[in-house]
Amino acid sequence: MDRPGALTFVPAGAERQGFYRDVNLSYSALWIDPDIRLPGCERLRDLPILVNRKDVVIATLLSSLRDEIALGHKPDTAYVEHLVALVSLRVATLNREQQPSVRHGCLSRRALGRARDYIDAHMNSDISLSELAAVAGMAVDSFARRFKATTGLAPYAYVIEERVRRAEILLRETGLSIGSIAFRLGFSSQSHFTTTFRRLRGMTPRAYRVNSSPES
User: Fold this and answer.
1) How far apart are the first and last CA of the chain?
2) Cα→Cα distances 175→45, 144, 183, Å
3) Model-level pTM greater than 0.90?
4) Distance of alpha carbon 72 from alpha carbon 4, whole angstroms
């Protein structure tokens, strides 16, 4: 009785059998490594099977990831990790598990500095959440929560914002091509860079360069 927009969760080690007749079945599947260490993922294998549930947040997250891949973009590792963590927490909520309310402190100045230095030095590469947590000397889930409490942004969102901020400088102060800037700042393609820049700044990189030139 699966319907459009239905959500099914199958924990590791469980088996689900489905029977379909006279259907053109199309769906998106997110496979999560049961040994992954991300916030919310540690209890997934203990949850029961969920069938034909509804969750707008999970649907939006998976649709966004699917569309990104369909456009030929390779999503950043940190972005995918953050998405998986959010989906896991939502699945636990659907199972009506009571999540403890915990207030998380901020990162120390030293830990934040290490994370920022690492991002700065590896801006043109794929930066993962686990790498940043290791640099800060913390567990992944604790680092992610404390980083957001400190900066106001999730680690993956902070990395993207830093890339776009640096792109603004290069667009204003250099004659580098937009493709070269995209490559230098770790975007998977020029179109990925353009899409991300427009989403965060409300205009394309080319339009930003034109508007920022002294003659404009």
Assistant:
1) 59
2) 52, 36, 15
3) no
4) 25
